[in-house]
Design goal:
Radius of gyration: 30 Å
Structural class: alpha/beta
Largest sheet: 7 strands, antiparallel
Strand order of the largest sheet: 15-12-14-13-17-18-16
Strand content: 5-15%
Helix content: 40-55%
Distance between the termini: 77 Å
Shape: globular
């Protein structure tokens, strides 16, 4: 749609009328230019409506100016549903209420921005849940699921969202409010006399669809009705099945337009509230047979065998996803359920889930199914997974979308033929035909999906910037459409048409049916203000793509090497917008703390990744960091490193994204790389310079530590200092010791010595000056366990420099440390550290930051660097010492894990270490960042967010602790945050173990 030239000035009028927030600046427009699909288009602006009044005003304004409105929730659409040049209406921030829970009738009203998994946590005490489960269920909003008619892996039992929606409220295109529900014959007679816009819609639909010849055409042209997942076009095949449209059949249900609105992708109405049918939580016992197969063909034939035994779900996970999972830190625990066999180099998993009340019956069903599979020569390993192991296999499956971004090289698995559905019995031949077409073009595929209902998410691996692959993008989509038509299937099973599949609907359903769709769009939305260009009147599917063919090569000089992505450019493109960073604090994990605190896209990891990518790769003016200028897209996108700097300032550099994002988008690293380039063009801000050089100041201040500590702790003096630097006045400042840990250790007498059990302890800048007493206990503990502790003068870890993107300085310290330790550290004599962020720098940043000459040395060194908790547990498991050294007096411990420990090491090492004394019990505080994140929580503009983040999980857990529980945390920043935020003292885990010594 062509926008009016003066429309930007009209936006100010709208902004003044609403209570919510609205943005028309370049940053927000870029953040909302993409979803999880291959598409990209810069919108007019973004608005966060706060209530129904706002939405009504927005719709009326759009109707008056004929401006497109693009409704958006989680933004995880795979067919470009929420991409367009209109005004983005994001309902995910404020429309999050639930109300009128009716446990007797098992229904509830939800606003469109309620997240599916969050809703189910609310419902859990009442033993109810909302059944449709997408792979994005921990961030998918119910409104988006309704608009897309989402389903998921359990659709074999529970169907799609359409089957669970009873009523819906929202706005029509003239701004009037509407309530969709069952329409009885008596109500229909009243509607026929009404002249409102709503009544006109009902009457027009009736006139359009009720003629018998139209219903015959629908029945003939629509996909096979036995296919459970039919999401192509508007669902008029379901809509006409009512006794208003077919009055001769009184057995049909009442007319309910929710059947049509479900899956309409926001093109007909703007929905605000939905009444959904809930399902009782089953107490059945579940099990998954993780059948290991040599080929996808075996999996698809095995599916047909499995379906004979009434499974609750059957899924495919192909070899590429398995391989990427084996290499992925976040999937390390989950892949433990796989059977790795060198005689079977490719693993394709056929995951068959069964559910029964009787465990014996469940076991019998699994055994019978396995026997049938063996008889059919399907599979070579048949583990039966239950409990936590069952969840592990499903976590691998759910990570499929994001994890594919880790495939090395420029070509990536693309979502454009990934949603086609045929009957399960036709799936083997259908897939074989499409695979053959791809092979003829030299294209490989990744595949996974809901094969029990005939859907396989197949993703050809393409590089759209390659002109040949760009051409294949359309050719393969067209070939798939012909195949789907041949097998009487649906082009979309759950991901919708969007702007991706609309082009092929005439081929699939015929021109008459598509003309009905166009008339329906006109009936509801005559001026086409609701999400135009989706389902009907779509542009060609290869327009408005994120990437387009290019003959130019962009070259960047970078400080990090980015070997895991073959360079900086691929690292920038790695985010696939799957939105894993948008999960709420009520869900497992840490990612993303700033989003969890604010519940706004701008504060998500995805937003940072999108802005970085767009600003670096797609700017009109010459990018200062490149040696070639590639203009791919909109000419009005102007590079602004200040906008990038601003958005990255809200990144806590917690590394949760590297661990929890299936695509392993390491925003901490991308942020540091950008900041160093920013400093190359601008000066380093004073506060960042102070923070980076903090260890140096501590060293200098140690000569007058009494005066230094006095200034830090006195209210008046610290207030002046904090104001000068830019720290929050509410934040306490750390003090230092006059004598460092290194000095104390090397000057003391009677140090324990050993011939064969030696360790080097790294004198990190925090333990060495701030947490000396913790360091002493660590040394005493190691000596009591029989290890000689060696400490030598070395450089700072460089963590403070890395946290502020001062990579040049960090590299110098890294070079010194690698040079010092490379000949000293080995598998026999490791380097261990007490502060996670410092010692884990040896593993994470050093190998990627150093010059080629030192890279191999750094990699070798990294293999033998351990957090002290890790080392002690490693030695414990080797039975190097026993529990006789420790008290048997009971103690209860509450433990908060450091973010770097969770991302780069293992939090369970600390938990297990503290439970070495036989009567010590440790309770792990639910995952979550403390909010301090080094200097982040000190900075005045970040203090409030720091406290919000702490209040999500950490502070409540401490405030609700039992009187006899002791609080522990590995990180110096975590302990500082706990003290400032709750007034409680916390201890390092090694202090707990030291105090337990007899």
């Amino acid at each position: 749609m062509q926008l009016k030239p003066n429309i930007m000035s009209e936006l100010d009028f709208l902004w003044d009328k609403i209570e919510g927030e609205a943005y028309e600046n370049q940053t927000f427009r870029i953040l909302y230019a993409t979803d999880a699909s291959e598409y990209r288009e810069i919108p007019l602006g973004v608005v966060y409506p706060k209530n129904n009044y706002d939405l009504g005003a927005i719709v009326q304004w759009a109707a008056h100016h004929k401006i497109p409105l693009i409704p958006r929730a989680g933004g995880t659409s795979l067919a470009g549903q929420v991409v367009g040049n209109g005004l983005i209406v994001d309902i995910s921030k404020y429309f999050k209420n639930t109300y009128d829970l009716d446990t007797e009738n098992q229904t509830i009203w939800v606003q469109a921005g309620v997240v599916r998994d969050d809703l189910n946590q609310i419902l859990k005490p009442d033993q109810l849940f909302f059944a449709p489960e997408t792979s994005t269920s921990n961030r998918a909003c119910i409104g988006g699921m309704f608009g897309n008619n989402s389903c998921g892996g359990n659709s074999l039992i529970y169907g799609s969202t359409r089957h669970h929606v009873l009523e819906a409220k929202g706005f029509l295109s003239d701004g009037s409010f509407v309530h969709f529900k069952n329409i009885t014959e008596e109500e229909w007679s009243q509607i026929s006399k009404d002249s409102s816009f709503e009544a006109t819609i009902y009457k027009s639909l009736f006139n359009l669809l009720h003629p018998e010849k139209v219903i015959v055409e629908i029945n003939q042209q629509f996909p096979d009705s036995r296919i459970r997942r039919r999401n192509s076009g508007y669902a008029i095949d379901d809509l006409v099945q009512n006794r208003i449209f077919q009055s001769q059949n009184k057995q049909l249900p009442d007319l309910n337009l929710c059947q049509l609105i479900a899956g309409s992708e926001g093109t007909l109405t703007l929905i605000t509230d939905i009444k959904i049918k809930l399902t009782p939580i089953s107490n059945d016992v579940k099990a998954v047979i993780g059948v290991h197969c040599d080929s996808i063909s075996d999996v698809l034939h095995g599916n047909l065998i499995a379906l004979n035994f009434q499974p609750t779900a059957v899924e495919l996970i192909d070899h590429t996803i398995i391989q990427l999972s084996l290499e992925n830190q976040s999937q390390k625990e989950n892949v433990s359920v796989l059977t790795l066999d060198p005689n079977h180099p490719e693993i394709h998993i056929l995951a068959i889930e069964f559910s029964e009340k009787d465990p014996d019956l469940l076991q019998k069903k699994c055994d019978t199914c396995i026997e049938a599979l063996k008889l059919g020569q399907i599979g070579y390993s048949y583990p039966i997974l239950q409990g936590r192991d069952l969840n592990k296999i499903w976590k691998i499956r759910k990570a499929g979308l994001g994890i594919m971004s880790n495939l090395k090289g420029d070509a990536k698995p693309k979502s454009f033929v990934e949603d086609s559905v045929v009957l399960p019995e036709q799936l083997p031949s259908y897939f074989a035909e499409f695979e053959s077409i791809c092979k003829n073009h030299g294209i490989k595929m990744v595949a996974y999906g809901h094969i029990s209902t005939g859907e396989i998410h197949k993703k050809p691996i393409l590089d759209i910037q390659n002109p040949q692959h760009f051409k294949l993008f359309h050719e393969l989509a067209l070939a798939d459409a012909h195949l789907v038509k041949k097998y009487h299937g649906s082009l979309s099973g759950e991901h919708g048409d969007g702007r991706l599949r609309g082009e092929f609907l005439p081929l699939l359903l015929g021109k008459k049916i598509v003309s009905l769709f166009q008339e329906i769009k006109t009936i509801f939305d005559p001026d086409s203000i609701f999400n135009p260009g989706k389902i009907v009147n779509t542009p060609r599917m290869d327009q408005f793509l994120r990437e387009t063919p290019s003959s130019e090569t962009i070259v960047y000089n970078t400080y990090f090497h980015f070997p895991e992505t073959d360079g900086w450019i691929n690292a920038l493109k790695k985010c696939c917008n799957s939105g894993d960073c948008r999960k709420s604090a009520s869900q497992d994990g840490t990612l993303c703390p700033s989003f969890q605190a604010q519940n706004e896209e701008y504060f998500s990891t995805r937003a940072r990744a999108n802005l970085l990518r767009e600003m670096i790769l797609n700017t009109r003016n010459r990018n200062p960091y490149s040696f070639a200028n590639l203009i791919q897209h909109d000419s009005d996108l102007v590079y602004s490193d200040q906008e990038i700097y601003d958005i990255l300032s809200w990144c806590l550099a917690c590394k949760a994204c590297k661990d929890e994002c299936p695509s392993q988008v390491d925003m901490t690293k991308l942020r540091a790389e950008f900041l160093q380039h920013y400093y190359d063009r601008h000066r380093i801000p004073f506060r960042s310079w102070i923070i980076g050089h903090y260890p140096l100041f501590n060293e200098w201040a140690s000569y007058f530590s009494g005066l230094y500590n006095f200034i830090m702790t006195q209210k008046w003096s610290s207030k002046i200092l904090k104001k000068m630097v830019g720290f929050a006045s509410q934040r306490s400042l750390p003090t230092i010791h006059k004598r460092s840990l290194l000095q104390w250790h090397n000057q003391r007498e009677n140090r324990f010595q050993s011939h064969d059990r030696k360790v080097y302890l790294f004198p990190d800048e925090f333990t060495n000056r701030n947490d000396v007493e913790i360091g002493k206990k660590g040394i005493y503990l190691l000596e009591k366990l029989g290890y000689e502790v060696i400490m030598i003068s070395s450089s700072f870890s460089g963590r403070t420099y890395l946290s502020k993107g001062m990579l040049k300085q960090a590299r110098r310290y890294a070079e010194k440390n690698v040079a010092i330790y490379k000949e000293l550290i080995s598998e026999k004599i490791p380097l261990i550290g007490i502060e996670p962020s410092a010692i884990l720098t040896f593993r994470d940043e050093y190998p990627d930051l150093l010059s080629e000459k030192l890279q191999l040395e750094a990699q070798k060194l990294a293999q033998n660097c351990f957090l002290i908790d890790e080392f002690i547990m490693k030695e414990w498991e080797l039975k190097k010492f026993d529990t006789s050294l420790f008290t048997d007096t009971p103690k209860k411990i509450l433990f908060h894990a450091h973010c770097y420990q969770k991302a780069l090491s293992d939090k369970t090492s600390s938990v297990n270490m503290m439970e070495i004394p036989k009567n010590y019990t440790v309770k792990l505080i639910e995952d979550g960042c403390c909010g301090m994140a080094g200097s982040f929580g000190f900075e005045k503009e970040h203090f409030e967010m720091s406290q919000k983040i702490g209040s999500l999980k950490l502070f409540p857990a401490i405030e609700n602790k039992k009187p006899d529980e002791i609080i522990t945390a590995c990180g110096t920043s975590c302990r500082h945050q706990i003290k400032d935020g709750t007034g409680e003292i916390s201890y390092h885990p090694i202090e707990i173990l030291f105090d337990a010594l007899i």
